[in-house]
Specification:
371 residues; alpha/beta; Rossmann fold
């Protein structure tokens, strides 16, 4: 198979879809690998390293899009790349289509095979490719929340760790999945007061057992949420429904309960966000203020730490990508039901149930289209 990787063009997206060691594995398996000039520079990888691994370097992205049978990326195609999309092209990347009807419609119209990192599952129903990015985003959420509490950004001027004789700041984590667990761990490291809310009692119990007196667990109800918001400095939104829009747990009316200058870090913004007032921002312009509350809603948070996030991501994607390249998408999916969960669009149909539900489109089982 001819496999390609283009340079990411999203605002301040410094990750790259493949590293030289993994290119070597594709080439060693008999595939041709094309990569755009300087695609990996920001993540710490030179053209020479890719060439030594067997990749062919192209100056322009269009040649790679036009020649490749499968494109490996980090983030979804942007409107300026829509003209490159064509029937039968496999794109293996993060899509987050539940919050992007326009891209979904383009993928369907052009009959692109969209294999989404974020909906591929494993034997235990977890999301193994989303997991490393969620770990990074969870840790960054506290780092960014702490920064934007500073007064020069419009924050309340609270130091999360406090000092002797002065109360520590409070972090409220909504949801204790992978993002939430990593936010909790980092917030404890910062020395903050930490409260986590979830509707899953087993997860809350696990947090109690793991962190003991360092974390207060609270079962999420409307009344409990309102009480906790009144003295919170940083809210981390870490709620996920795989393949679907994130439920709006934080409504505009809730913002009035927070102290002016508090910060909401909505990690779920790439799936629509868990705050009613959230909208995607960029690393260039990461925050805005609504109702006196700072909102940090960068949709590609791990992009600012490209060396760490690239290596973590490609380690998770490599074997799936090699399987698709070696067997073709149909044989790979028929062999691996977990990979089948990653197919969001195929032959002009929505082929993920969560996505179909969110966009109110018809769902078609991808396996039925392969027989």
């Amino acid at each position: 198979m001819i496999v390609g990787c283009v340079k990411e063009i999203m605002n301040n997206e410094f990750r790259v879809g493949i590293v030289p060691d993994h290119v070597q594995m594709y080439v060693g398996a008999g595939h041709r690998f094309l990569i755009e000039n300087d695609a990996g520079i920001a993540a710490g990888y030179t053209n020479e390293e890719y060439q030594q691994a067997g990749a062919e370097i192209f100056e322009d992205a269009s040649s790679i899009w036009n020649q490749s049978e499968m494109i490996i990326k980090v983030k979804e195609p942007l409107p300026s790349e829509f003209d490159y999309l064509r029937k039968g092209l496999i794109i293996f990347t993060f899509f987050h289509l539940a919050a992007n009807r326009r891209l979904t419609e383009v993928l369907l119209e052009k009959e692109v095979t969209a294999v989404a990192y974020e909906t591929i599952t494993d034997e235990e129903g977890r999301l193994p490719i989303l997991k490393p990015m969620s770990e990074i985003a969870g840790r960054l959420s506290i780092q960014e929340g702490a920064k934007y509490l500073e007064k020069q950004y419009g924050g309340s001027g609270v130091l999360l760790s406090g000092v002797s004789g002065v109360t520590r700041g409070k972090v409220l984590v909504l949801g204790c999945g992978v993002v939430g667990q990593n936010a909790i761990r980092t917030a404890i490291g910062f020395g903050a007061q930490v409260v986590v809310m979830d509707k899953n009692g087993s997860r809350l119990e696990a947090m109690d057992l793991m962190y003991r007196n360092n974390v207060q667990t609270v079962f999420m109800t409307e009344g409990a949420l309102r009480r906790e918001l009144t003295n919170t400095d940083v809210v981390v939104g870490s709620i996920l429904v795989p393949g679907e829009n994130t439920p709006k747990v934080l409504r505009r009316e809730h913002l009035k309960l927070l102290r002016p200058g508090s910060v909401i870090v909505d990690v779920a913004v790439d799936q629509g966000g868990c705050a009613e007032t959230s909208r995607p921002t960029t690393h260039d312009n990461p925050i805005y203020i609504e109702e006196g509350i700072i909102h940090y809603c960068v949709s590609n948070m791990p992009g600012c730490v490209p060396f760490t996030s690239t290596n973590s991501l490609v380690n998770a994607t490599m074997f799936h990508g090699l399987h698709i390249a070696g067997s073709g998408i149909e044989a790979a999916v028929l062999f691996d039901s977990h990979l089948a969960q990653g197919i969001n669009c195929y032959k002009g149909h929505v082929t993920h149930q969560g996505l179909a539900h969110s966009l109110e489109m018809e769902y078609v089982n991808p396996i039925s289209l392969m027989k």
